[in-house]
Please model this.
Amino acid sequence: MENDLSLDNPRWEAFANARAREVPTIEAARIAGYAKPNQSAASLERRPEIRGRIGVILERRRGGGSPDLGGLIDRLIALADKAAETADARAIDVARGCLAEAGRLKQLLPAERPAIPPPPLPRQLTLAEWRVKHDPTYRADDN
Model:
């Protein structure tokens, strides 16, 4: 096993690794070596140890940090500003590197989409309209 967090059952570990790679459940059971993957997949997916292991694998793959790049970009720019305040040539190189990395990360951000306003609420029915529409015993020509 690669570390102490790995599952003791090698087939569970293989299943968790496959699911963390977004392999469909039945295919992941097949990769893990189950003879009847159609029957095994659902019960494997529900096991808390496996679900926890998938979470650990995904967290490690993501680097353990927030998937939001905005905060990282802001920190890189703040570091660059601080380094640029000094007259040291090495600090200026650090500032340039921070700004270059911030620019590269900014390109990875999804393009901002304009907010779509919610549809307008339907007009509220008058009592007579509501009765015509929803009351099967109501007859408009009686009133």
Notes: The mean pLDDT is 82.
